[in-house]
Structure formats: structure tokens, C-alpha cells
Amino acid sequence: MISAQSSQLLPETEWRDRQRAHEARVASWADPHLARASRGEKHPVYDFLFSYYSFRASWLRQWHPGPDVLLGGDAAREFLRWPEYRETPDGVQVDSSTLTDKRRVSISWMRDLLAAMTTRAPAFACFGLHEWAMVYRQTPEEIRHNAYPLRFPPDELARIVESQPVRCTHFDAFRFFTAPARPLNKLQPERTSVTEHEQRGCLHANMDLYKWAFKLAPFTPSDLIADCFALARDIREMDMRASPYDLRALGFAPLMIETPEGRLDYERQQRAFATRGEPLRARLLSLCERLLAE
Known about the structure:
Blueprint: E1 8-10, H1 12-39, H2 48-51, H3 57-61, E2 69-71, E3 85-87, E4 92-94, H4 101-119, H5 129-133, H6 154-162, H7 171-174, H8 194-197, H9 203-207, H10 209-215, H11 222-241, H12 260-293
Parallel strand pairs: 1-2
Antiparallel strand pairs: 3-4
Helix pairs in contact: 4-12, 10-11, 11-12
């Protein structure tokens, strides 16, 4: 169990303030999604953050202090509804001894992945062609977001894809490539080779920091989950702006990676996102190592 002596004791008034601040922060993301869902509306940019990433908006709202904090006051017992929490003479806190062997195996794999990405050189030459490869040579009925127009007719879109090297390293993007697009990719990543190919320049790898953060919940401090979500949301906006979809009706101006200027802009933003991801990845790696050591 995490030592109470090495943990910070928060009185109820203080942890309640942190809890309310977290709930207010994530409400700006979760509330619009829940409102759209209640109306049966879909959003091609933001729904991805709650559908592909299988962490409910209600779970995102929940505040957890992380392993360095003891929660004081009688109200702290409300956290005991999660099996990972234990009550001590000093307060309530998460207890790493509750981790099952199966979950430890998963955390060990995650640690190895994050460590490999830390040491592997980032790559910045994909220029967002993964979204184009997902509609390459498809019929209008097959296109995922077919409620929105494409910026080019099918033949021109195919010409753009074929005129540039396709260098996707991310398996969970590559697996959505159309069958004709897969042979165009320089790599053929598989589920079993994720640790070999994942690299920190990849937009989707940096979005996935949110996935690794919530998979460690409730041991992950909620501010870290929220920081990772904020990064994923910003990346998702840029990712879809660089896609072949015309989303100007939703307020997303296209990032025209079919032009030299657009590719330069894409790489500039990609590098900035990679820089933002570095401290988040380091915190997640440290949390994995701590949970496994304890």
C-alpha cells in the first residue's frame, strides 16, 4: 500500500475545492457532448473523444486525487465505493495493493510502450495522410462522415494520396485504411508490433496519452487525465482540419496538406503537439513505474 507517511493530507475543504474545479473544467467538454447525444446529434470532430476513447463523460467528470494524497474528513468515505480505495487512520487514499495480476501485466506493457516512445526518435513526415487513406477509393456510401462533403472529387483525392509517401506508424489509424490504401503505406503495423512502431511525433500517439491516463484510473490524478484530454481535443481539431472533409460549416477551416505551405504548417503544429505531450508521457511513465514497484 502507498505509505500514508509520504502522502499529503488534504482537509475536506481543500479537496472539495479541487474536486469542484475539476468538474467545472471538464464540464465545458462533457456537457456539449451529452447535450448532442440527448438530441441524437453527431459531431465528426468531438464525438471521437467519447466513442473511440471508451471513457464516458460521467467518468471524466469524476475527480481522483492520485496516489500522493490522503483525503481527510468523514465525507472522504464516499471514495470507498471504488474498490481501489482504502481507509487508514489518517484518511482515505488509493491502495496499489488492490491491483490484480492481470492489471499489473497491462500496466507493465503500457510502461514498456511509453518508455520505448521516450527513447525513439520522433517522425514528422506523415502530413496527416491517414485520414485521406481512410476514404481512398471509397464510394460515397462507404465514407465514414458522409454527412459532410469531401474537398475533392474521388479521382483528385486519390491522386493526392498517390502523389505523396504514406508513412503512418500508428496501428489504430492504419487499421482503418481502405483495402486499396494499405499497400501504399511504408509500414504495415500490426497489433503485436505496436511497441516497435509507436513514436512520439505521431498525432494519434499523443492523443492516446489520454487513453493511457484513463486506463490507470483511479490511480491517475484527475488533473493529468484532464490535461491529456485537452491535448487530445486540440489534436483532434487539427487532425480533422487536415483531413479531406470540408468542415467549414462547423467552423473548421481546412489545413491544406495537399499544398507545400499546408504541409509546413501541419509539421509545425505536429511538433508543437509532440512537445506538449512530453511532460504528460513522463508523468504517466512515472505513475506506471510507481504502481508496479509498490
